[in-house]
Design a protein that fits this description.
The protein is mostly beta strands and 69 residues long. It has a single domain, classed as endopeptidase domain like (from Nostoc punctiforme) (endopeptidase fold (from Nostoc punctiforme)). It is 0% helix and 51% strand. Strand 3 (33-37) and strand 4 form a beta hairpin. The mean pLDDT is 92.
Length: 69
């Protein structure tokens, strides 16, 4: 998936800082919501920058992959 606007429910989003390993993954529920687990399962807002939680970005978006066709 090249752009967040093209994402679909079920796509996987991978997160991590530039030049580092992927360290987090979540499944998109919609174009702006993601379910992920970081100590507990949460549904948070999501955009081209990453996961937005508690008034800050908690994870930097690296890539979105579609696992179903």
């Amino acid at each position: 998936v090249d752009f967040v606007e093209e994402c679909q429910p079920g796509d996987l989003a991978f997160f991590g800082e530039e030049n580092q390993s992927i360290n987090h993954v979540g499944m998109l529920l919609s174009s702006n919501n993601i379910i992920h687990c970081s100590r507990k399962v949460k549904v948070d807002s999501f955009d081209h920058n990453g996961i937005f939680s508690d008034k800050t970005y908690s994870h930097k978006l690296r890539v979105i992959k579609r696992i179903k066709s």
